[in-house]
Specification:
157 residues; alpha/beta; Rossmann fold; five-stranded parallel β-sheet; 43% helix; 15% strand
């Protein structure tokens, strides 16, 4: 258990790569704060965070679900503070949240483009800054990781 007594915050953890990362962290002994977007976890993804929490509990792990839009500073700051209040610290940040709009380039709106950049890039800055501030203040020699999603927005539907 390489991560015994460590606390990890994983953004975009309710499904996909983030889901797998959260489970791997628990398998290695970490307690995990799992971020998800209530807006994105609706419709066909309804219940995704509950399924992740159940899987973590079945493994004997500890997790805290943290709903937040990681492209908004106030929500990121509140998320990080909630994780610290609950676990006392954050040792590992995994910037995993990302979106890829399924649109043809000619149908892509400026609003969707801006939202994509906010979630995929701005969130990395906001989350890293908030967690790094905590790590520096508490003199934690932790790790900050960013997962890069590569997708084509030019392709046809």
């Amino acid at each position: 258990m390489r991560l015994q007594d460590k606390v990890a915050l994983v953004t975009g953890a309710s499904r996909g790569i983030g889901h797998g990362i959260a489970l791997a962290m628990v398998r290695e002994g970490a307690r995990v704060a799992v971020n998800y977007s209530p807006e994105r976890d609706s419709g066909k993804y309804q219940g995704a965070i509950e399924r992740l929490m159940s899987a973590i509990q079945a493994m004997g792990g500890t997790a805290l679900p943290l709903p937040a839009d990681v492209s908004r500073k106030s929500e990121v700051d509140a998320m990080v503070e909630a994780a610290i209040r609950h676990f006392g610290r954050i040792d590992i940040l995994v910037n995993n949240a990302g979106i890829c709009p399924a649109r043809n380039l000619m149908e892509l709106t400026e609003e969707v483009w801006d939202r994509t950049f906010a979630v995929n890039l701005k969130s990395v800055f906001l989350c890293t800054q908030a967690v790094a501030r905590h790590m520096i203040e508490k003199q934690i020699q932790g790790r900050i990781l960013s997962i890069s999603s590569i997708a084509s927005i030019v392709g046809s539907n």
